[in-house]
Amino acid sequence: MEPTTTAAAAPTASEGRWIARYFRVHERGTSLRTEVLAGVATFLASMYIIVVNPAILSDAGIPFSAALSATVLISFMSSLAMGLYARNPILVAPGMGMNALFTYTLVLGAGLSWEVALGCVFWSGVLFAVLAMFNVREAIIEAIPASLRYAITCGIGLFITFIGLKNAGFIVGSEATLVTLGNFDASLVTFFIGMMATAIMVVLRFNGALILGIALTTLLAAPMGRLWGEEVMVEWSGLAAWPDFSAVMQVDIWGALKVAYLPFIFVMLFTNFFDALSCFMALSESADLKDKDGNPRNLKRSMTVDAFASMIAAPLGTSAAQTFIESGAGVAQGGRTGLVAVTIALLFLPFLFLSPLLSLVPGIATAPALVLVGLFMLAPVAKIDWACAEEAFPAFLAIILMPLTYSITLGIAFGFLSFVLIKLFTGRLEAIRPAMWISAALSVLMLVTTH
After folding, report:
1. TM segments (predicted)?
2. Cα 324 to chain center, whole Å?
3. What are the E-state strand segments in 23-168?
4. Alpha helix locations (H) across 47-97?
5. Over the stretch 81-98, which tens digit does the pLDDT of each residue have?
6. DSSP 101
7. Where in the chain are the domains?
8. Tens digits of per-residue pLDDT, 331-351?
């Protein structure tokens, strides 16, 4: 954390003093300069979502430019609300994992139209808002075992990595072995160089390593189709353009209200709720962002912002927004107040007009970022008690089934079911909370209705 000095912490302008008072900058032991720099650090660590989220949503049929505009808008609006209302240094943007669940499970897996899938996003946000407004989070936290919460994050991380490797052609289908290594052509070599360069920058702790990796891989892909015998992957179409709002208000709210879609809504609710909660708890521990009772600071307000961000995301045309663990980059720079989130929001806004520039980025350029995001999301695997089989097996099943079945929903469903069955047949009924019984029942309903 940057040390607080009189010069840095005592702005002379009345506006600066008002900002400092509103965000309690001095009270948190920081400075305006530190807060702004922390916002820049978080933005650099997470701006890959501006390109990666539309790349994933376009697989579901949402136009890339429309998904990009929606991504920027919701990131700006929700992060601004997090800063001004909840006053926490946390970024809220369309989440990795939620976009994969939306595209590869709801749309491509279950066959929902992207409009109906957006309706499921909306209703999950409504339920999230209800949970956030009422004091039920403690009961839910206690109901779902920690091992399964960690496992879901890890499983989604592996699933995202698998998608990245597939999108790059690094892994392809095989009749003999189901999957195998792709052909070593110019595209694959370019992806591998980009992936290794991105990994090295992550190891060296470059700020914005993922976005730098995307930019480098895009430059490496530019000669394809011109110098090598590949399709042209990078074509200039301009620097800036008006935002594309073609996906705005295309959400099918009432079409999503079918019994068969309830498991999908529940899974999106569960994933978003626990991701938000775990992010707030992790950041509060690492940066001492706690209230007088030792709980995460302004937790109810932060969860409310996250919930309404999910509701607003659907009408804008993107998957659910959620808190980003990359907010830790700003916290590590000394960020402690909502001014960090406001700074992040303002940095997102210009990209609303840069969709032609960002559409230059081909799939093999975003693939290294997906692989590395999987690495980051695998960190909680160390928190699972692998020596305790009754906790480890459901967690293992959830982790391994997500990439192998190409379905986040199936991984979660079988993780819940196996946990309940193991506790039931080993006489540990007291370990099954009511919410877990409901989760298992919904998992069975989902399996019966969709398979």
Report:
1. 36-56, 62-84, 91-110, 116-136, 148-166, 186-204, 209-229, 259-283, 337-354, 361-381, 393-422, 434-450
2. 6
3. 92-94
4. 49-58, 64-81
5. 999 998 888 899 998 778
6. I
7. 24-235+259-450
8. 767 788 889 999 999 999 999
